[in-house]
Structures are given as C-alpha cells and as structure tokens.
Amino acid sequence: MSLQVMLSQLSAGMVTTILIFVLTLLFSLPLGLIISFGRMSENFLIRNIAKIYISIMRGTPLMLQLLVVYFGPYYIFGISISSSYRAYAVIIAFSINYAAYFAEIYRGGIESMPDGQYEAAKVLGYTKNQTFFKIILPQVVKRILPSVTNEVITLVKDTSLAFSIAYAEMFTIAKSIAASQKSMIPFVAAAIFYYVFNFFVASLMEFWEKKMSYYR
C-alpha cells in the first residue's frame, strides 16, 4: 500500500473522529447542564434520579456503555440492529457519559457562587432566570473552563473507544492498516493526529479562558 493511499484512508478516519468529538460536545454540554439542575433540585425524587444517573455513568467504563447502547435494543427488546445504527450508538453513548461529568462540573461551579449575588439580583428586580443566565452563568463558565478543558481533551482520546463496536474512526482504521501492512507507520500517523488535535483544542480553550478573564 502506498503512503498516499494509506493517508487517504486515515483521513477518512480523522473526519469521523472529529465528527464524534463535535457531536458529543454539541449534545453533552447542554444535557449536562440540565442534569446538574436535576442534581441540585429540591425535589427528592428528581435529585436522587440525577444522582444515581451520574453515579452509574461515572462508575462504569465508557466501553461497556457503548456495548450496552449498541446491543441493548436487540438483547432487551428484540429490535434488529442495522450497521448504520453504530454511528448513532457511538454518539448516544458518548453524550450520556460525558453529560454526567459535565453535570458535576456545572454543579460545582454553580454551588461555588456566593448567595449574596442572588440576593443582590433579587433586590435589583431580576427574575430567577435573568439572574442565572445574565449574572451567574457567565461567572460559572469562567470558573469551570479548566475542568471542562480537561474533559474535552480526554474526549479526543476516548473517541478511539468506538472501535469496540467496530465503528471505523481514526484508531480503528490505523489498527487495521497496521495489521495488514505489518507497519508501525499508521500508529505513528494516528498518534500525531491525536496530539495535534488535542494541542489545537487546548489552545482554543486557553484562548477562550483568557477572553473570559474580564469576569474576575
């Protein structure tokens, strides 16, 4: 196999990896915020459902969750699984897993805010929604950015776990080519891709953190 053909195949895997990354963040970030509200709810049932959900998602391996999401419909409900469902299973599993981690990050940031800010906003005539989205949330975002950055970087590397349900992302293709060609070059190319991608993500998050510094 020529180097050009190998890079062409790997590039397809790169696109798939980036797609998993983007879609996971797109769904898990807002879902995590919703779950964090449930975790802080005054309702006993809602609070404990959110707590149990977070405990399960953080306490079991992501690879196991991928397998459950992919094979669950067949083994539990007898629904036939199409090959196209692999992509949906990957996004669903990654999103519900990372939403649990983001929920705890959000909760920590929100609960760290002084009660005096809520009281001051109430005196000024702000509603609860206005207080949260205009006053509290911008400060919370600034506080939690380092923690979110760590999770986002981990997500880049975790995309390789999609191989567990035979979904052809970057690592899966690199492993397949390496096995057929008996060469380490595909692994080196994959390592370079993950490193560069993570470097770009970390730089972007650092830039965003500096832009948010006016909330200090």
Written description of the protein model:
There is one protein chain. The chain is mostly helical. The protein has one domain: MetI-like (MetI-like fold). Helices cover 81% and strands 0% of the residues. It is built from 8 helices and no strands. Helix 1 runs antiparallel to helix 2. 25% of the residues are buried. The model has no long low-confidence stretch (mean pLDDT 87).
Structural descriptors:
single chain, 216 residues, mainly alpha, MetI-like fold, 8 helices, 81% helix
Give a brief description.
With 216 residues, this protein is mainly alpha-helical.
Instruction: Count up the domains.
Output: 1
- Measured on Cα atoms, how large is the radius of gyration? 21 Å
Mean pLDDT: 87
- Based on DSSP secondary structure assignment, what is the total number of beta strands? 0
Structural class: mainly alpha
Q: How many helices?
A: 8
CATH class: Mainly Alpha
Choose one word for the global shape: flat
The name of the CATH topology is MetI-like fold
CATH-defined superfamily: MetI-like
Q: Roughly how many Å apart are the termini?
A: 55 Å
Low-confidence stretches: none
Q: Report the portion of residues in β strands.
A: under 5%
Task: Give the helix proportion (percent range).
Answer: over 70%
> Largest sheet, if any?
none
Task: Give the topology string: H per helix, E per strand.
Answer: HHHHHHHH
CATH architecture heading: Orthogonal Bundle
List strands and helices in order, with pairings.
Elements: H1 3-39, H2 44-59, H3 62-77, H4 85-111, H5 115-123, H6 128-158, H7 170-181, H8 185-211
Helix pairs in contact: 1-2, 1-4, 1-7, 1-8, 2-4, 3-4, 4-6, 5-6, 6-8, 7-8
